[in-house]
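Regression test attached.
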Amino acid sequence: MGIKIGLIGYGYWGPNLLRNFMRQKDCAVTYVADSRVQRLQLINELYPSVKTTQSVDELLNSSDVDAIVIATPVFTHFDLAKKALEKGKHVLIEKPMTASVKEAEHLINEAVKNGLILMVDHTYLYTSAIHKMKELISDDTVGKLQYFDSTRINLGLFQPDINVLWDLAPHDISILNYLVEEKPISVNATGISHTKNGIENVAYMTVNYQSDFIAHFNCSWTSPVKVRQTLIGGDKKMIVYNDLEATEKVKIYDTGFNHQTDEEKEGILVDYRTGDIYIPKLSELEALYSVAKDFVESIASNKQPISSAQVGLDVVNILVAAQESIKNNGKEVKLKS
Amino acid sequence: MGIKIGLIGYGYWGPNLLRNFMRQKDCAVTYVADSRVQRLQLINELYPSVKTTQSVDELLNSSDVDAIVIATPVFTHFDLAKKALEKGKHVLIEKPMTASVKEAEHLINEAVKNGLILMVDHTYLYTSAIHKMKELISDDTVGKLQYFDSTRINLGLFQPDINVLWDLAPHDISILNYLVEEKPISVNATGISHTKNGIENVAYMTVNYQSDFIAHFNCSWTSPVKVRQTLIGGDKKMIVYNDLEATEKVKIYDTGFNHQTDEEKEGILVDYRTGDIYIPKLSELEALYSVAKDFVESIASNKQPISSAQVGLDVVNILVAAQESIKNNGKEVKLKS
Amino acid sequence: MGIKIGLIGYGYWGPNLLRNFMRQKDCAVTYVADSRVQRLQLINELYPSVKTTQSVDELLNSSDVDAIVIATPVFTHFDLAKKALEKGKHVLIEKPMTASVKEAEHLINEAVKNGLILMVDHTYLYTSAIHKMKELISDDTVGKLQYFDSTRINLGLFQPDINVLWDLAPHDISILNYLVEEKPISVNATGISHTKNGIENVAYMTVNYQSDFIAHFNCSWTSPVKVRQTLIGGDKKMIVYNDLEATEKVKIYDTGFNHQTDEEKEGILVDYRTGDIYIPKLSELEALYSVAKDFVESIASNKQPISSAQVGLDVVNILVAAQESIKNNGKEVKLKS
Amino acid sequence: MGIKIGLIGYGYWGPNLLRNFMRQKDCAVTYVADSRVQRLQLINELYPSVKTTQSVDELLNSSDVDAIVIATPVFTHFDLAKKALEKGKHVLIEKPMTASVKEAEHLINEAVKNGLILMVDHTYLYTSAIHKMKELISDDTVGKLQYFDSTRINLGLFQPDINVLWDLAPHDISILNYLVEEKPISVNATGISHTKNGIENVAYMTVNYQSDFIAHFNCSWTSPVKVRQTLIGGDKKMIVYNDLEATEKVKIYDTGFNHQTDEEKEGILVDYRTGDIYIPKLSELEALYSVAKDFVESIASNKQPISSAQVGLDVVNILVAAQESIKNNGKEVKLKS
């Protein structure tokens, strides 16, 4: 049977996790906990072999569980992961990892101390689109990176406990950090709440760097149209990444500009060029399958997964800074290095 | 012949101004000044009746000129407009009006003192798309406004003297101010220069209000794709305004959300709905024709044009604040009320 | 338990049929037959309550089966349906109904004779998009119909036994017949085979009428892009139906033209107008759920389903004529009335 | 001054011809004839050096004219071109060349006899999009051609004397003949008139070949949307040519399929693959400029232009066959070889 997985939380994302862990070799989901009886009944019908319970403790204490997958609201992540790690279980947490930097750091220490795998489900890091872009940046096809400009907007699915940046930006921040080696130094963010509970449903964030690279994020739960688009500019090529396209997700533009100083006129002349466009064929493997595979293999061979706890912490670090900036009228908030 | 127009500057926009003023009744362009002989020769061929000169002063001093149209770089606007007003000429200035608030205010005072028309060419205020949106907002079809989110990006046409916000955002700021009655209170902006001259080619701006309305602008000269899109959200309808669409520029979504407090769970429940979409037929009249017409008619009947000097000043006010914010790491800059 | 369904064929479409019949009230799928053991094992895992067999006869002879759903290749439809009807079972057949008109007529007679429901799964007739278009035509919003122009092309999924018209056009022919009351009188078709087996992978068909209405179909298995689009023209409005759009499937254009005879010039003057566009919100109910529901309810209350056997026959009639036309170099083939 | 051009007809296309001939070296437009005084006044204003007349004969008899450009309705082409050739003038005719094959042949003989250049304005043959596709076909990138599928539909601009095929299809037929070396053998066409004058405003045409290549054309003046799209399939690559795209007109898909005979099953197995997409940068030179240049240079160096009279005749040949097919209920009409 291999590694025995316990899944906590069977809401929106839980069924996808369950299905993809069930497809793994040397691994089985043995237990699922959820407070809602109706959700558990669904599992009983579809997967009669999986034990279900309303008691998280029952699951955490079960000797039938080697590793825990946490798919519950953010504010519960820390307590659940801490308990699991203390009981010697490996842990995979849904993004965002925790509600604070301190919590994330505590979990990392706990995992290291106990020699356990601690992973965060930043699913996008396992997509073929992101892999293709990483490749094009690593081999210098794109050239020196200049900007990352992400728009992730749609209607609905308001979260009751976290704002739109905490809900939507983790995807794009994890992609940014994965593609760009330079570490960010500070964050500015602005936003607004239209729901009277102070939770922003529209927010904008700029992430600043020592170099002349800049990253910007536009997130909204109140757009009439759904957009999932990121522009990535290098001094050799520019990329448009549109996640809503079925087959043409990544378009690479042989586009750029050169600048030179015109000494006579004391001006800067900018010369731009446009060229061919190239759309690579991408693999259609489901990314979440690879997430589950990486978790299982990391446990089996005691290696760090791609979407490691450090990846999760780096995302939380930026989210926390963004929240502080929004609450301070957009002022620059430095990131701890 | 009616009103006699002198045009200063025959670069990118000058030919369009010349053509549209030539089409007006009770009006003629009599004089064009440009420092480049080649440009003037083009006019001689196309419009043999128009006098041309390399000397701006010759044009300003001519008794054949009642009103001046200024289509030169921004840093020259103030001096040219000041001279023209002092000589008793009505003035239409290309956007942005001036390089500072003080300059714009000085010109306004001068125009009032001399009883002259002072107008700024914010062309978008004369498009049928903006008129349709204004109508839908005024008659409460859209409901209480919640956000304005504009993206104006493309490749190239770097300006040597002003940054990308000064170049591209005047369009969207003038639209924002025209559509929204509430006055903005402050601005945050971030940006970056990739051209070693400190002039930002990528910039982001948030405009803040006393209410829960928010406006955001994304401007770039270094995008591989051209985008001209604004989302406008009201609590009854939402609008997508795509200026690149040939015939479907304005799409009105019967889309919205309601929020209510769920006392038991101490949470906010948000319920959203999607409905029909409506795309109104728009008139295809060239906007610049209407700009010229408004200038001529405002002179003839001594009335304020739609795109008045005050409209131009309000735009400059926001641009100046944005520049200050960028240079101060994105900090909030209050707007003078 | 209500009506007991036996499903024959568990290939591409079978799982969707099984799932949707399982969701019905007063109905259960009791038996599935397929020659491939692997396919049956899938059912055993997902639906342990359903009996499976490799023997169609076992299923047809079972007293646990009141009605049969046939989801096998076209050339098997007639024999299976005939046997089922002879054994007193109601029958739902996948489209296209049969490989010949004679077969379809025989089945209809058999069903009438035995008082059984015979239905064909023309799924599109149960979509909200088609219902909306039917409504707009019935209430004369669209006006007198003038043309129906359908394109259904994509790459792949070559069928080994039927050509691309038999594979793809049944969808559009059933929609055409549903929306248009007038009966077609003849068919022209052309096509080509690139697969050396004489089975056309590209084909074009015109369906002719007594009036000045015309219908055209463009079908291909060898297009690099997927298109599912139909233009429907009336003398008051025109419709673009794009089935690949997630939320904007049906766009109604207030577009038209008028013609008048200019007697002096002995010419025809045509005046066209363009107007608003309207995109109605459509229900998101799965169409196949409604197909299953109509079958079950038709059996229960002994009524004709929307997608009746006559609907299926009318489609086969056109397909047979098209095939004859292709094999005779595109000559007009009259339809039996 | 070089070659002296006389232009007959100053309607929709005339101004474009005038402008582009004016831009040529070693060439000048000296004379324009049009029956409408108003049209001629426009020329007097814009080009005071050009003589204008309402008398075609005056223009044809002028010693100031070496070559004639005919931009009048189709039914007038033959008489005008014949007269011009008889008077020793070179001739460029707007597409379609003539209203019959016999007329086109007569003109060709006349031109040969007198050693004059006779050219037809098939503008598309001078676009960079078509050149790029020709290149990709010639160097075998696309492989063996399998189909050409063109859609050219929009609303309006009904012609009073020719049907929609004669109006719109010449573009696509000239492209087809230019890209495909094999000669077509026959034509099928269907269509309908909604204007009571028997002139089809919707029409479909299939062009047949000895090999398994096929071409199809969909033309309409009564579509609510404008489409200018051609799919070209080869056994190595497939091309989507969308003339409405500003910068992405030609998309090349590394897409294809293989077929093999499965002897055991007596079936054909088809395996398809999808791959990268490539969008080449195209030159933005105005095609009509190159048409004018080719005419002038062909006269100067007595060579055949790309868009020769034979090209024009081949197009007329297909149009005449299509019309005969439509009037005979779509029956196959053989092309003279």
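Expected vs. actual: identical. Chain A touches chain B through 58 residues (CB under 8 Å).
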